[in-house]
Amino acid sequence: MPKVIHFQIFADDIERAKKFYTSVFDWKMEKISLNNVDHYFIFSKDYEQESFGHITKREQKINCIVDYIGVSSIEESFKKIEENNGTVMIPKTAVNGYGWYALCRDSEGNIFGLWEEKKVMTDIQKKSQINPQS
Fold it and tell me: Residues 5-31: what's their mean pLDDT?
């Protein structure tokens, strides 16, 4: 079942937003540049888990925190969204070898994101496709 896997906070002033969230929740942040845009990925205080969200510069009139739902296929999700009176705001967009995202609106006008992780084969998986065992 698809679930919320990440969130995005849009900020007019990144430094102010970083100060707010690190002070209030004791989060740690690391700057990562993707598609020539700086993002500040959020980690728990002791880095006990992978990043669970990020802050980025507000470039559109989005005044909310956007939750991203992990899906196996953004295209298939688009079909279901549109069949159920939702809309696609930002089409499937690549994120430097990590996967793809899209932004949508539900039937009530709420914004949410989709995330499709890039499928990466391990060396063992690659070998098994080249030399399948009988």
Answer: 87
Contacts for 131 with CB less than 8 Å, ≥ 6 apart:
none
Dig out the tokens for 80 from the structure.
């279901």
In tens, the pLDDT along 73-124 reads 999 999 999 999 899 999 999 998 889 999 999 987 889 999 999 887 555 5
Sign of CA dihedral 71, 75, 79, 81: positive
- Beta strands 65-70 and 87-95: pairing type? unpaired
The pairing of beta strand 53-57 with beta strand 4-11? parallel
DSSP code of residue 96 = T
What's the CATH number of domain 4-130, 2.30.30.60, 3.10.180.10, 3.40.50.720, 3.90.1150.10?
3.10.180.10
Instruction: Report the amino acid identity of residue 30.
Output: E
Q: What is the pTM of this model?
A: 0.69
